[in-house]
Each structure stands twice: as structure tokens, then as C-alpha cells.
Amino acid sequence: MAFVTFVESAWQRHLRLAMLLTGDRWQAEELLQDSLVRMYERWRKLDRHEDLHAYLRRMLVNGRTSMWRRRRRENLVAETPERSVPAGFDSDVEVKNALMSLPPRQRAVVVLRLYEDLTERQAAAALGCSIGTVKSQYARALDKLRQLVREPNYQGGRRSR
């Protein structure tokens, strides 16, 4: 498969994944473009029997982790503020806010398991961790999301006073 053909077939799918990982379209495009550039540099060496989509997915997750660590090290952004999420998750914005309230690793696990529909083993491979880590991060993320849904003090994305 030619690289251009791969990019054309993968762009939208992986852009959505990058957007769910970053929470921002511009950061997502930057992440995807950086990952594709690195992939292009290795294109001739990649095993054609390897799942190229899984390879790119792993690059996106690793790239997002690197972005997060770099920003954390540089102290450009203080801790991510807790986001308010209304009960019921009635819109895409509410789902996005709920995802963004999760720590990066938990968010990655939820996105890979639910959005990408990966098995625990596939998610562990994409994240470079054990299956047990995927299970525990997934359970913690779901607990946090359940807590957000149950909070009675939230209405329409803002705290009621």
C-alpha cells in the first residue's frame, strides 16, 4: 500500500481518535500530522503484514503522552481544571467534557476500549502496558464518569448556586 493511499484511508478515523485524546481539533491535527511524518520516515521499513492502523494508533497515544509530559515539564499549563459535566450526557460537548476531566491515561483507555472498540489486549499493546493496567485504568475512569453523571449540583455544564 502506498503511503498516500494509507493516509487518505486513515485520516478521518485517526483524526477523530486524536481529537478524543487531546480534546482540541488543532492539537489533534498537529498530533496526527507529527505521527504521520514519523510514520513516513519509517514507511519502507514497516512490515506490510503489520496492522498499520494499530501502528498509527500507538503512535498517536504515545505522541499525546509526550505532549502532555512536555507541557507538564515546561509548566506552560497548571493542572487541568476539573470540568463540570451535566447529568445524563445529553450532547457531544458533555461527553467531551467528561472525557477531558479524566487523567490522560484513563482517557486513552476509555477512547481505545469504547471508541476504537479494542480488546483489553489490543489496548494494552497500543498503550505499551499490561492488560491489568488497562483493566484498572478503565475501571477507575468508569467510576469517575459515573460520579459525574450522579452529581446533583450540575446543570447545563455549570455548577448551580
TrEMBL record:
Q: List keywords of the entry alphabetically.
A: DNA-binding, Sigma factor, Transcription, Transcription regulation
Annotated RNA polymerase sigma-70 region domain ranges read 15-73
| Stored Pfam families | Sigma70_r2, Sigma70_r4_2
Which segments constitute the RNA polymerase sigma factor 70 region 4 type domain?
94-145
Q: Which SUPFAM superfamilies match?
A: Sigma2 domain of RNA polymerase sigma factors, Sigma3 and sigma4 domains of RNA polymerase sigma factors
Please give the superkingdom of this protein's source: Bacteria
What family does this chain come from, according to its entry? Answer: Belongs to the sigma-70 factor family. ECF subfamily.
What name does the UniProt record give this protein?
SigE family RNA polymerase sigma factor
Q: Which organism is it from?
A: Rugosimonospora acidiphila
Q: What is the lineage of its organism?
A: Bacteria, Bacillati, Actinomycetota, Actinomycetes, Micromonosporales
